[in-house]
Amino acid sequence: MSIRIWHQSFTVLSDLGVYDEALRAHFRKVARPDTEIHMHGMQPGTYRSNYPGDDIKHSALQYLHGLQFMAAGLNAEAQGFDAYAISTLPEPGLRDIRSLLDIPVVGYGESAMLTACMLGRRFGVLVFIDELAELVHDNAARHGLAERLAGVRHVGFRFADVLAAFADPAALIERFRTAARALIADGAEVIIPGEAPLNVLLATHGISEVDGVPVLDSLGAWIKQAEALVDLRRANGTRSCDRGYFSARPDGARVREIFAFYGLDRFLQQGEAA
Question: Family assignment (predicted)?
Answer without folding.
Answer: Belongs to the HyuE racemase family.
